[in-house]
Amino acid sequence: MKQFSIQFEISSRINLLLLLGSSLLAVLALGPGWYADDSLVPFHLHYSFYSWVCHQDPSRSFEFMGAQMAVCSRCIGIYGAFALGFWLKGITARFEVWPDRDLALRLLSLFAGLIGFDVLINALDIWTNTHYSRLLLGVGFGLMASVFITSNDSFSSNA
Amino acid sequence: MAKEITHHGMPSYWNAVITAGLITGTVLTVIQLITSYMTIAGSSVTGMTIIGCLIASIAGIISNWMYAKGYNLTYPIGKGALLGVFSGIITSIVAFCLSLFWTKFIDTGMNEAIIEATLKSLEDQGLTQEEIDIAQSFIPDPNSIAGLIISFASALAMYIFINLISGIISAKIFAKEVE
Question: What ipTM describes this predicted complex?
């Protein structure tokens, strides 16, 4: 049983890689506003890097220090909360306050479904989502993704 | 799926990885081409790129699903991450090659048309000619070697990381032993 539970928990090396990688992505997603003193910041490499995975619509993105972020409000929630999840789980590793694998997967699926529902009903003009509603759903999805990745099986603590 | 057994005793994951990369790369290319022609036509492309964002991460999911379910296997999530990374690399290569083929052989004027449409939208936003010239200097020339390398490298980095994450999550879902 112990061997089984270990197999599905990430190693400290992968955890560190994900923590650093996700933090880097979250910082880059803030855009070039914190260092670029240029009225044409939208043409910085931050934008071409994230253009593969985000629409970067200015009307659906936050600004950071005077420049549009490199990703939309939903994506900054996903990237930010994904990185934050690794930090929070690292800091609170001694406390069993986080959901186990199964609950984390249910919550991750719930937020994925809510995002899909939000996109659909917005596209159908049933309701108009806002910066903060998109951010909130993105935060929920990103946080649950990192919580799920670092989660233990419910029985692993007793193994 | 044919069972090709490696010297480690586990079936080879390359069938799953290559299939996932081919499917995702092809779908992404189609979406990128539709987006490009919508940009040229001056239409809004937000909806299409939301789909593209979701599609970009499915290579890691498909490869792990095919490998774990196709062979009825369980394996550590580190291996799931590896499958995700390889799928992301193949997705990038497939999407890059298909796009290159399209712009070099099928529609050779597409890149110029996109740049023209982008510059026109800048003019419509009220930018001066000097500002447009500076803006143009930030846009890599898609026909130059440097432009191609920048484009490929940025897509590669993004697809690798996105599919590493989706690979880990998928391995945790699909490659877990039934209790």
Answer: 0.78
